[in-house]
Amino acid sequence: MQEFISQHISFENRIELTPLCEHAKNNKCFISTKCTKKFCFYGFSSPFLIQFLYQKGGEQVIKAYRIRLLPTQEQEEKLWQHVHAARAVWNWGLNYQMELFKNGEKHLSAYSLRKVLTQVKKTDELNWLNDVSFHTMGNVLIDLGNAYKDFFAIKPARFTISKTKKAARTGKKLTPYDLEGHPKFKARRDGKFKFPIRVENTYFVNHCVNVEKIGKIQYQANLKRELPQGKDACKVSNPRIKFIDNKWILSFGIEVCENQAPPLTDNSLGIDLGVKDLAVASFGGKQLTFHNINKSKGMQSLERKKKHLQRGIARKYRTNGNYNKTQNVVKTEKILKRVESRLRNKRHDHTHQTTHKLVSLLPYRVVMEDLNVSGMMKNKHLSKAIQEQCWAEFIRQMKYKSEWNHIEFIQVGRWYPSSKRCSCCGHIKADLKLRDRMYECVACGLTINRDFNAALNLEMYRYVSPETTGQTA
Ligand SMILES: [Zn+2]
Predict the structure, then answer these.
(1) How far is the CA of 289 from the centre of ligand 1 (A)?
(2) How far apart are CA 184 and CA 181, in angstroms?
(3) 93 shares its domain with 186
């Protein structure tokens, strides 16, 4: 397909984005082109379209935001009302669909279900739903419809392993509800408090966000990342509010058109992830080291606090006998949750800062290793340290941040000898141990930091196609 297009279109000259073709009239073609050979984008997959837009230079990216809301007491009550209503509506919708299935009737679409809800809402039992935004409930039903869509896509339908085992043990009969991927009822004790809000009425004014039926809620402003203020200033997508770690968080996406990609430098960037340091990078032959935050004093004292609390809870459980949860245990668990969230947030922040610093160097490409994380996790001495480093998250962030700046991102195969090869002469040291912190080359006598050597090798990485391996390695 790529070849076909490059034959027919030269991207720079002949294309103008004008909706002219017949598919465009029916809203089926996203873009149509006015070139010497008429070209229509009907039926093209979206990754291709995105690539096409990149090449045009005008790129539409949805950037995700998470901001903290600072509601007043009155608003908080309303937020809780919405949380409970969203859960109630989900459970009502699920129950309704399951009853339909039991009676041999047809599955309803989200929109038909919404119509039913409008009628049901008039009864006394669900009268209280009138205080809540109806669009929130509509969106919950759409979520439910999507969950059902995913469930129907699983073929062949099968029971979950845990349910089959339980059925064999207890002799309980399995129902369609136990099928893999079937939407599940939500309970308050699950501790997931969230709900979608109406897109059309979501906008930012004077560092407040307008939410339907709740009003203007103040948010914690970030001066570096100011949100577009005003009713029609930006197009918000998929806004949701959730209550997590005792905070109200609004997450949403904003469609931004970024024409100006910053000019890139001629240097390549090689990054070697490690346990001792989070990352050792090589940029134009210079060494950059990013420390491991888990070894800092603050983090270690938090870790100690966490362990202390965990031990306390376990002990209280045991001495209570019968493993009863007393108020004292509940109280300690709350403190533990706070400590855990603090640890998590600190790690998250550190990963974001590191990846941002690396991308801000503006290399023309980024080379990283494709790590066998699950294999390394089997090493019991290292598994905790590896888990705390959040490598997968690091790689994910590097990927999308590179994409934003039009930087090429390369992940080198697992068997590329980045740490075993000498960055100076290319000699491969087969018996390199994990404890050797310095790399000493037998052939040329180079002595260099082991991680920096690996980063240098990654920086200088050259793609070798499978046919030519052996000759150029
Ligand atoms: Zn050497």
Answers:
(1) 22
(2) 8
(3) yes
In angstroms, the Cα distances linking 258 to 174, 398, 453 are 53, 19, 37
Question: Residue 39 has what pLDDT?
Answer: 47
What is the whole-number distance in angstroms between the Cα of residue 135 and the centre of ligand 1? 66
Task: Compute the distance from residue 456 Cα to the ligand 1 centre, in Å.
Answer: 13
* pLDDT tens string 116-169: 999 888 887 888 888 899 999 999 999 999 999 999 998 888 888 888 888 889
| Rounded distance from Cα 238 to ligand 1 centre (Å) | 54
What distance in angstroms lies between residue 98's CA and the mean position of ligand 1's atoms?
68
Cα 438 to ligand 1 centroid, rounded to whole Å? 13
User: Is residue 436 assigned to a domain?
Assistant: no
Tokens of 468: 């030519």
Task: Tell me: do 185 and 138 sit in the same domain.
Answer: yes
Residues with CB under 5 A from ligand 1 (ion): 422, 424-425, 427, 441, 443-444, 446
d(CA 349, CA 79): 27
Q: 440: CA distance to ligand 1 center in Å?
A: 8
Q: Give the mean model confidence (pLDDT) for residues 266-287.
A: 90
Range of the domain at 7: 2-57
Task: Provide the CB-side half-sphere exposure for 421 (13 A, CA).
Answer: 17
Amino acid at 359: V
Query: What is the whole-number distance in angstroms between the Cα of residue 136 and the centre of ligand 1?
Result: 64
Query: What's the CA gap between 153 and 57, in Å, rounded?
Result: 37
Please state, for a pLDDT cut of 70, what percent of the chain lies above it. Answer: 84
Residue whose C-alpha is closest to residue 271's, from 393, 451, 421, 417: 451
